[in-house]
Amino acid sequence: MEISTNIQRALAYFHLDKPEASWEELKVRLLAITDESLAIAHGNLGSDFAHSEFYQEMYFALREVSKQGNLSLDQYRALATGQSIMAAANARIEGRPEALVKLIDRLNQNDHHNSQGGVHPSLSVGAPQDPLSWNELSELYMVERSINLKEKSRKGAMTTHRAIGGAFESIGLNDLRGHTREDLIALRTKLLEGRQASTVNNLLSQLGAVLEWAVSTDKLTKHYADKLKITKGADSKREAFTREQVLTLMEQANALPVASWERWALSLLSITGARVGEVSFLTKADIKQVDDLWCIDINEDEDGKSIKTKHSKRLVPLVDGALGFDLSAFLQAVDVGALPSDHGVSPDKASKVLGQLIKQTLGDELGEHRTLHSLRHHMAASMKAAGVELQYAQAVTGHASRTITYDTYGGSIPVQRKHEAICKALEEGVAQ
Question: Quick one: signal sequence residues (predicted)?
């Protein structure tokens, strides 16, 4: 019933509920919607969310309507343009108005062509021969897919899409309908400027996903992104910290005030191999005893929390004395509000502050390819060096794939087993 109601709303909103409406009448409504979407002020979180939901609702409703076979050609043209408007309006919320502006120009240009005796309006706006830029395709893709993405993932995808869009602009490709394999090779070459091969491969994965979706939804007839990834020199150059470096960082952490969130965030990253975002979201309720062992409970049970995948939800035991970690002092600090979340510290801020702390502590010894994330690499590499079984390493690090756990970083597992794995890793497994 909700879908039916949404379709009825969409038909009325775009005047598609009037079979007798001419293209000129439909176009007037499309221009009004586009102008309205461009004029709305954004910046209020609640209002922006409501607008975004409406745009997505209309987009999906129009997609359902497009499956019908009883519309006129003019209505199908208006429907296709309406989908583009909703995608562009969603981008406008994030401060990217160019797609809306382009649609207004296109609709107005259509007026000019008609006055000069040009092609029939029903064959212009939204017609297959109209250019389709990467930015337009990206907007359509994100409107449809963003409903399944967490906010952080959505922002990450948009950052990736903007990088790809910039490369398309640099090589002068403004219409993907006629792209060639040579165009995408030129794009890859442009993306490689100032980027590592592994980073470019991530960008190419996103490119391929969007183009594959475009073909499956009839936005494009074909794409040429298969097997574009770089195989030579594409391995990540990230390095794990050495045991000596981690011990130095723990000494620095222990020298910080007991109430310092930096002290405990750096300590937890060092002795658990958790991600910085996971540690940043921890609350007092997430520090708990399970089977007589103190653990951090990594979850997304509260609003605002986020974990990478479903496999990231886990309990990681805290080993007293590991690398100099003082469990008793930590528990007391938790009681007085010394976790990052107690200070309103976001994952991005934590990453920036702790990354700077690491640079200051290690100086020239840091090396070119070590970052805050290298603490996670150190844990996995240490478990591998100590001969920890893969299933226990996976349970500690929260990876879905055993291959990922050891190749990149070095069921329900009892916390006692995980405690033993961490003890073994940090006592025996010395990552060099």
Answer: none
Residue with tokens 């997304």: 300
pLDDT tens across 229-242, in order?
Answer: 887 654 556 688 88
157 in Cβ contact with 105 (< 8 Å): no
pLDDT tens, 102-113?
888 888 875 544
Per DSSP, the residues of 77-114 read HHHHHHHHHHHHHHHHHTT--HHHHHHHHHHHHHHHHH
pTM: 0.56
| CB atoms inside a 10 Å sphere around CB 265 | 27
- The answer to whether 298 touches 312, Cβ cutoff 8 Å, is yes
Q: Residue 329 has which token pair?
A: 């002092």
Contact 304, 328 (CB under 8 A): no
> Which residues on adjacent β-strands are paired with residue 105?
none
**Measuring CA to CA, which residue among 374, 391, 404, 401 is closest to residue 311?**
401
pLDDT of residue 211: 94
The label of the residue with tokens 């909703």 reads 86
pLDDT greater than 50 at residue 408:
no
> At residue 377, what is the residue type?
H
User: Distance between CA atoms of 390 and 425, rounded to whole angstroms?
Assistant: 12
Nearest Cα neighbor of 78 from 96, 60, 62, 98 is 62
Asked whether 410 and 240 are in contact (CB, 8 A), the reply is yes
The CATH fold of domain 243-427 = hpI Integrase; Chain A (1.10.443)
Instruction: State the pLDDT at residue 401.
Output: 53
